[in-house]
Write a structure and sequence with these properties.
Four Helix Bundle (Hemerythrin (Met), subunit A), about 140 residues, binds fe (ii) ion, mainly alpha
Length: about 140
Amino acid sequence: MALIEWSDKMSVGVDSIDDQHKKLVNMINALNDALRGGEAEEVLVKIFDGLAVYTQKHFQYEEKLFAEHGYPLAAEHKAEHDALIAQVVELKTKLDAGSALIGIELMKFLKGWLTNHILKSDMAYSAHLRGRKVA
Ligand SMILES: [Fe+2]
Ligand SMILES: [Fe+2]
């Protein structure tokens, strides 16, 4: 079973963003599957790196839309993105140094940050962007 199941309650009503969120869900699920399948740590770290890069691209996409459409909570939202990226960078440093391994705790963390961020902070811009006909 997938670690995260996409459901309609995760939809922010903006197709391009939903597609990116689904991709993030798929990437976290793929990492979880690889972990459970006993893949080597270096394979897991490669998947993690891909997730980190795509997350950054996704955050930039949202922030560009905030700027284009005058989203009033843009600064707070960007601060949350920055804090999440800082956590991922710190994790990456530990993984590279061998002082952390990809395991169940890390998967719980990734699942938590993605779903909480989508359900609270991302959902908060839904009405504003939909009101501006962003798709
Ligand atoms: Fe998002
Ligand atoms: Fe966001």
